[in-house]
Amino acid sequence: MKKTAQGILEMITREGQPDMELDYSKLTQIYAHQVAAISHKINRDELAILIAVGVGIYQRGLKEFQSGAGAEDLFKAVQQQAAAQKQ
Prior knowledge:
By secondary structure, this protein is mainly alpha-helical. The chain has 4 helices and no strands.
């Protein structure tokens, strides 16, 4: 099912969406998993764009985390979660 960018934006931003209560680390993990699942269906340029979006999500989370705690802690948490998923 192909959706337009406007249609997807409307789905994302419509009122009444359930609150997912995800921190940026978890959101980045979920995003990476979903991009990996479709990576064989898209070309390198499309993959690069999706990775850039993931970088933006991660960096936004890092900036928010730095305002309240140490960036090293967030980085370690992401590394630990990634290592746990590999096992």
